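for the writeup, i need someone to sanity check this before i put it in the appendix. the sequnce is what the collaborator sent (i think, or maybe the updated version? ugh). structure was predicted straight from it, no edits. if anything looks off just tell me and ill rerun, i have time this weekend
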Amino acid sequence: MTQRLTGQDWMIAANTRAVFAALEAAGGPGCARFVGGCVRNTLMGKPVDDIDIATVLHPEAVIAALDTAGIKHVPTGLEHGTVTAISGGKPFEVTTLRHDVSTDGRNATVAFTDDWAQDAARRDFRFNALYADLRGEIVDPVGDGVDDALAGRVIFVGDPQTRIREDYLRILRFFRFFAWYGRGEPDAAALEACAALKDGMRRLSAERISKELLKLLAAEAPGRAVALMISTGVLAAFAPEAGNLDRFAEVLSGPPDAVLRLAALLPDDAVLARGVAERLRLSNAQRDRLVAALGSGPVLSANMTDAAARQQLYRIGAQAFGDRLHLAGQASQRLLDLAAAWRKPELPVGGEDVAALGVPKGPMVGEILRTLGAWWIENDFPADRRAVLKRLSEIVSA
């Protein structure tokens, strides 16, 4: 069994060592350890993006230690013991060991401790309750965390229902971690607890739910996790409209795209899509993309001509065009390449050209330009101004 992390660039990097040196100068050797995802991902052979550090030092002592070492810092969550150190331009989240005093399913009141086992006991999953010192020695206070990481098991620390009642977001975190790291069958006790307590997610903010959901959908292969969310009723607890697993499975073959995958789960209904987006408090850009992807319009086909494709690109834009191709199962590489290269053309004549032909200002100018624009689109956007002016003259004469 692997009990030591070795040869990791993120561990031996100068900016990492600078943070540890600052903390140990104040609290002595062993006062700080790596924790959570960086340890878990290294054991699983996956990339490490964020480096979190746990320490026995209280937040004010952490701040003083970083000040003494000349390391910038941000008080990102002092009430929960978190200070973010900025070393070599990279953030390191440094959090004091803690235990829960009280929880309400959404927020927790914590007290600081110097007991590593207490800190581990309040964490969500066993493979997230792993620590490692600067030499790579792994500490597994709750037991089985190393084995879980190596086997791809997502198992709650202690009783699943207790962990969930502390923070109902852990229901979504279970499925998110299963999507990213799970192998084999899901933990039965965890599934049972998630299904039994799913209504507790109503206490959560829409922003927290959507953030977890989009992270889940961005996994390389979230199909099993989403199917489990549907079968347990978890997805219906906040998005009852989402359930089109057949179309969802079709879009999974492409690059991870959380918004497109969410669209695939929903019916083709722009009004409904807007309602879901607003309920989940998605960003304006995410909402608009969802609505455009699921709006009404002509059926797109992999066999459509380039000219026909350009007409639709002009009308709905490259993003919606690509999304609708994927959702229809018609995403030919030819059309995707066409969309990627698309630059919306401009009609090479305007109102002044209509006026020059003797048409007075007023509604007639707009009507003529709309008629000309329809001809221009149907004829694949001719750029020759003389040809377009000739057609304009014919429309005015008619």
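Residues 351-397 form one domain. The first strand starts at residue 32 and ends at 35.
thx in advance!!
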